[in-house]
Write a structure and sequence with these properties.
This protein is an alpha/beta fold. The protein is built from 10 helices and 14 strands. The N terminus is likely disordered.
Length: about 325
């Protein structure tokens, strides 16, 4: 598994203001001819996201991720519970200018060019024309569309990946403080996913707060400060990768032969099973490897002890009976 190194060293959460806060947030829809049936996509969601964080919301299809995101943005109203965005109650119009949003299935005006679409969105924000002339080319460059004919091509002629890129550009047109992205890697090839990751990391470097949903857990593992798992409308867990998965530099080793008393200096929890010694390495791996011959031991395997985010995700769902192995 690839070791993840944080891009920036952020202050502790206690030193940073809250950008998103929810307390027991709930959403209920009534369905059926007589509206006598209930669908509950959110069942009491409590969450905090701090300034400057890159926060990943994970969950299977139908978990309530998009419902939560739309509730935070004020697109839909919660049935119960409280929340705030940038210090204002959910739905407060005064925060709209400070927020960027890329929906999962964005609607675009087919007969506008990419440039005209960004001009239109900029106009909605009241961005002056001279600022638009500088900002729009920068965004085309940022999302990887500057070298194509995208600025002059009508959106109905865009590929799905190009639409996703121009959607990212419109989410950033107002230079927002916090950016909400609903499945930003959807429809992108590996190069496009890499570019979106780089964009998110550049926004992080600018001190912006990024809140996004994704099914691409490898990308989440590389760029997020903290993650949450939502399933059946309930928040299963929230925390940093280290809090949820464990330390990234702990290795499990399997050895043959060697003096157990000496090996335990490196592997304190050494145990013998399946014709070999097993345990977790304590110490610098290169020094340990260099000492094997002196200890008369042979290394069979050395792997990172912590699970991948994907393994942890599946484990959390299985424990709650949401996903069963075949």
């Amino acid at each position: 598994m690839e070791t993840v190194t944080p891009l920036l060293s952020l202050p502790t959460t206690a030193d940073r203001p809250l950008v998103v806060q929810t307390n027991d947030l709930k959403k209920v829809y009534r369905t059926g001819f007589w509206l006598n049936q209930k669908v509950v996509p959110l069942k009491g969601c409590t969450l905090q996201v701090y300034e400057g964080e890159t926060f990943g919301l994970l969950g299977p299809n139908g978990a309530g991720k998009t419902t939560l995101l739309k509730t935070l943005l004020g697109i839909i109203r919660p049935t119960d519970g409280k929340g705030s965005l940038l210090g204002k109650p959910l739905g407060d119009r005064s925060v709209k200018q400070r927020v960027g949003y890329l929906p999962e299935n964005a609607y675009f005006y087919d007969f506008l060019t990419g440039w005209e679409f960004l001009q239109y969105v900029a106009g909605l924000f009241g961005i002056p024309a001279d600022v638009q002339r500088k900002r729009i080319p920068e965004l085309f460059e940022l999302v990887g569309l500057a070298q194509s004919a995208a600025r002059k091509k009508q959106l109905r002629q865009y590929s799905k990946g190009m639409l996703q890129r121009v959607g990212m550009a419109q989410a950033l047109i107002n230079d927002p403080e916090v950016v909400f992205l609903d499945e930003p890697m959807s429809g992108l090839d590996p190069l496009g996913r890499y570019q979106i990751r780089e964009i998110i990391l550049s926004l992080k470097a600018q001190g912006k707060t990024i809140f996004f949903n994704s099914h691409v857990l490898s990308d989440v593992e590389k760029i997020c400060d903290r993650v949450a798992i939502l399933a059946r409308g309930e928040m299963l867990c929230v925390g940093s990768l280290q809090e949820l998965l464990g330390t990234a530099d702990v290795y499990h080793v399997k050895l043959k032969n060697g003096n157990p008393a000496v090996l335990r200096r490196w592997v304190p929890d050494l145990e013998f099973q399946d014709d070999g010694w097993h345990g977790h390495l304590k110490g610098h791996p290169p020094d340990f490897l260099a000492s094997l011959d002196l200890m008369g031991a042979q290394l069979v395997s050395m792997t990172l002890a912590r699970p991948s985010l994907e393994e942890f995700f599946v484990q959390q769902l299985r424990q709650r009976g949401i996903y069963a192995s075949q």
